[in-house]
Design brief:
This protein is of the alpha/beta class and 344 residues long. The chain contains eleven helices and nine strands.
């Protein structure tokens, strides 16, 4: 951003020791002591691009809510109307396909996720072609506050069925998800793995696409009032990306935060169950919000970092911050383009 012209810059006489001139042209006689009414200018605070992005996200959400008259009653009406509209659409046109997909769940575990992708959330992608058609790549996405990692699963489905190369991708999720009786089996069969550094390295060595949610436990159970504000990223993905020379593609997921809004968190109860927290959400079944996936330009890590930089904390932190800032900007762009939570 360009600075404005400083007052008096065009009025200072050459050779004036102070650079300050009266209106009539006579220089002020200033000495080094105190002068009444004059005070030293406070130091300029350092720029915080990420903080500015967060404020713009807040403005985008607030403007959208004010334009839509988002009182509690209006919000409730919007939720009910959107749910009924989507269910009616399913019953009229695609019910037979939905039933067929659920019936084939045993032979093809991804059919459930495909049904959610096409008919429940009606996912739309932007910039999907930016994901390389082959070779190792890390896709870094924001996480919704709901209990399950639907975000990563929808990104994987987009790559598998919509990407020009129809390439597979492995979502990395919290390990305890994989231990759940039914969901754990579905996740493993769909290619998901526990979010550990060895798994990330192993998958990249096999030249695979890997989806990571680097907010980690901070993103799990995020309250609705904090939606679309990225938490602190972990260092692991950035360090491994530098080691492997893997490009990073940021992916903004819009719509997931409203699908299962978290109203409160019960951390103590969650710890008793082995969870980061126990989120309280008013919807047992996720709402049929309209989802959009925005794929940003790849960051070519190998062109800017040496493999040895993985051992330097300042270089790892630099990449982590760069990715987080780019992703927050992409989220902001997606929010500005959205007209409606349920219609997109």
């Amino acid at each position: 951003m360009s600075e404005g012209d400083r007052p008096g810059n065009g009025d200072a006489r050459a050779g004036s020791p102070t650079g300050a001139v009266r209106d009539g042209g006579e220089p002020f006689k200033l000495d080094r002591g105190r002068r009444r009414g004059l005070a030293a200018s406070p130091p300029t605070p350092p720029l915080d691009p990420f903080g500015a992005l967060e404020r713009q996200v807040e403005e985008a959400l607030t403007t959208r809510e004010l334009n839509g008259g988002a009182t509690n009653l209006a919000l409730l009406r919007s939720v009910v109307d959107g749910t009924l509209t989507t269910v009616a659409r399913l019953r009229r046109t695609k019910l037979y396909e939905t039933v067929g997909a659920l019936a084939g769940l045993g032979s093809d575990p991804t059919s459930l996720f495909r049904t959610l992708y096409r008919y429940w959330w009606r996912v739309e992608t932007f910039g999907l072609e930016r994901v390389p058609p082959r070779g190792r790549v890390i896709l870094v996405a924001n996480r919704g506050g709901g209990p399950l990692p639907y975000d990563a699963l929808m990104i994987a489905d987009a790559l598998r069925h919509v990407h020009p190369a129809r390439r597979a991708a492995s979502p990395l999720v919290e390990g305890w998800f994989l231990e759940l009786p039914l969901l754990g089996r579905l996740l493993v069969q769909s290619g998901a793995a526990a979010a550990t550094v060895p798994n990330l390295r192993r998958l990249l060595t096999r030249e695979q696409a890997v989806i990571v949610l680097p907010e980690g436990r901070q993103g799990f159970g995020r309250r609705f009032r904090g939606r679309y504000r990225l938490g602190r990223f972990t260092d692991a993905f950035a360090r491994v990306a530098i080691e492997a020379g893997a490009p990073i593609v940021p992916v903004a997921v819009i719509g997931a935060e409203e699908a299962q809004p978290v109203l409160a968190r019960f951390d103590a109860a969650g710890r008793l169950l082995g969870l980061p927290t126990l989120p309280l959400t008013p919807t047992l079944v996720p709402l049929p919000t309209k989802w959009t996936l925005h794929f940003g330009e790849p960051l070519h890590v190998a062109a800017s970092y040496e493999a040895t930089d993985a051992g330097r904390s300042e270089m790892v932190g630099r990449l982590r911050h760069q990715v987080r800032e780019r992703l927050q900007g992409l989220v902001l762009e997606g929010l500005r383009r959205r007209r409606s939570v349920f219609l997109g």
